[in-house]
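Entry:
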Amino acid sequence: MMQYRAYLVGENGVLRSAEAFEAPSDSSALDFAKRFTRLGKVEVWQLGRKIAVLDSEQLCPPLPDPTRPTLTRQ
């Protein structure tokens, strides 16, 4: 297991909080850190190595609901 940190980045670029955790791989760490994107942008680090910057879910448009009919213009 490797040591990672997920940093929640505020709108002005200032770190708002950090979560330390362990994961067996970078991909596992990213899967874990994605849960924090509902709060904002997240930087994922393994010691001094930046793994990724994950965009906030708030910035992403919602996925279409396949059970809801779509409106079309005629």
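The chain has one domain: 2-59.
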